[in-house]
Amino acid sequence: MSKSIILYKSKYGTTRKYAQWLSEALGCDLNDIRKAQIGDLAQYDTIIIGGGVYAGSIAGISFLHKHIKALSGKNIIVFAVGVTGQDQDNIKNLKQRNLRDLNVPLFYLQGALSINKLSFLDRTLCKIIQRAIAKKALENREPLEEALIQAGDGFDKTDKAQLEPIISYISNIDS
Ligand SMILES: Cc1cc2nc3c(=O)[nH]c(=O)nc-3n(C[C@H](O)[C@H](O)[C@H](O)COP(=O)(O)O)c2cc1C
What we know:
alpha/beta; single chain; elongated
């Protein structure tokens, strides 16, 4: 079996939870991307990068762009954790914005949002958006806006089953 590592960046713990579940399922290593050293990745065949989505950007994705040359020849997989739906348009937009011209598979997992546990700045931002969009017609709402309205004080959609497509993708690399 090829050797894999998951590098994650998580602000409130949702991506870390998925990364821990995935590392248990795959029996692979795990590290916070902020502590990762590119030189230590030489021993791995597969690098899995996971990050929470903030205003359309996947946390930690700059690591991939910065080290893309050093990682050439390795299997690279990215997963993003957000609160919007899993529809194809959403995933396509995330991919265009974050991976640009990189030919890397992107998996999207629905995460969690707990308004009262957010930092003051993030909570204020979410509340401003919630108030502003409450007046907006349903059809004019952006996916994140709609998700924030649906979230109310918060919700948790984390589910191990959402990891199955990633696990089966990685099993296919190995077979
Ligand atoms: C300020 C802020 C901006 C966010 N922007 C997005 C977004 O653009 N798209 C999305 O799907 N989720 C967005 N979210 C929701 C987070 O992606 C979600 O809470 C995720 O589970 C966080 O993962 P983490 O705890 O690992 O950082 C946002 C949350 C906050 C607090």
